[in-house]
Amino acid sequence: MILSRHNSMCSTMTLATLSGSAFPSMLFIKTRKRLYMSACTGNILALIVGLCFGWSSPYLPKLKEAAHIKENPLGRLITYDEASWLGSLLPLGAIFGTFIAGYCAQKIGRRKTMLFNIVIPFAVAFLIFAFADNIYSFYLARFVSGVTVSGVYTVVPMYLAEISEDEVRGFVCASIMTFETCGELIIYCIGPYVTIFASSMFGVCVCLVAALSIIFILPESPYYLLSINDKERAEKSLMKLRSETKEQVAFELEFMTAVMQEASGIQGTFLDLWKTKASRRAEVITLGLTIFQHWSGIVPVLLYSQSIFEQTGSGIPPQFCTMAVGLVQFLASFVTPGLVDKLGRRLMLFMSAMGMFVSEMALGTYFYMKDSGEDVSRVFWLPVACLVLYIVSYVSGFGPLIWTIMGEIFPTHLKAVAFSVGVFFWWSMGFVVGRVFYPISISVGMGGCFWLFSGFCFTAGIFILTYIIETKGKNIIEIQRLLNK
After folding, report:
1. Which end of the chain is more exposed for a tag (fewer CB within 10 A), N or C?
2. Is residue 185 part of a domain?
């Protein structure tokens, strides 16, 4: 084994010295091709999430408008309450699926969880969509989609953080948003022109690609293998990820082993999240970012974007506006992976919050003027511009970086439970915001809704500056030291 072949090194190196600045310089990197291939394979699941998230925007109008009755598999128009449930059942299902994925990730591994707990249920949900002929089948499909989506947000960021090197961890973890927005762009573009059956069968095909990629490409997380005392497979997994020999991965494997030995025998529980200053601060950061992310209004914007554009009265076809926003969102998602390891997490989060604050304040003002009977024809372009700025701001910071930070700030033995709690809370907020958006918009108008969201964005900026730590380029030991200060 690696440790037995390097007794002299291990006798003089502790976990603290392994975490020092010598570590990156001693690690010779030949290529990261296999690492990026593995990241892309895991992120196919994020693309499927985008398909599920974006589904409501093109298909709710088809189900509730008389002009699309021929394409409606129900043979009748759905009510506004049914439309609200179709939008909010996905986050409701995600609440129930969170702890299942976290438990399975610890018991059977990240790789098997992705295959059996995520890909297969996604395929089942798409098949239910394809053959649904009553509203309850649609409810079931949305609920199953939600249960599975939560698994993606629980397992994939955890896996990406564990397989990445410190120098590119931010880039790899932030890439999840690029794939998710790609899925949303696809459904925004094809949804207005194809039936629910056709788009659902497309989803099944993507699930098949994901399953084959996981089986033939994806290695198990070395950290998970070390947690079950399988050092031989951990070494092989690391060699595959780094495209290196035993000698070249020896130092990194020793570092991973030291991290796991420090946490050996410790089974992370919910109470453990509150036992130390570092874990308490990490959990507060997670829950705080979760609250602000959802109350920035992202769920209503993604679920009901076409309906929002219809209410602007701008004269621009709403489906084209939605496609434009989806395209901008996809292109903007490339910004974060390229800049996050240069500018840092805190700065990009703060810029994201301020961008969302400005855009939603302006959009709220537009809706207020329109609802007050003022002539807004001269600024017909403002709603599209505001939503484009909002999406760019969200995708450049709050969208991907909450998962990046969650994958970085918790020690290995707490990651599964921390992600489960964080994602549970994340989807609980998503359900609440998605469910109350229609009632609030009817009560106080669209202007009041977006002003409310902008207020949360401004408060988020203060939270980021006063409480978030910078994790750029730091390993787990250095991050824990910062959290303990």
Report:
1. C
2. yes
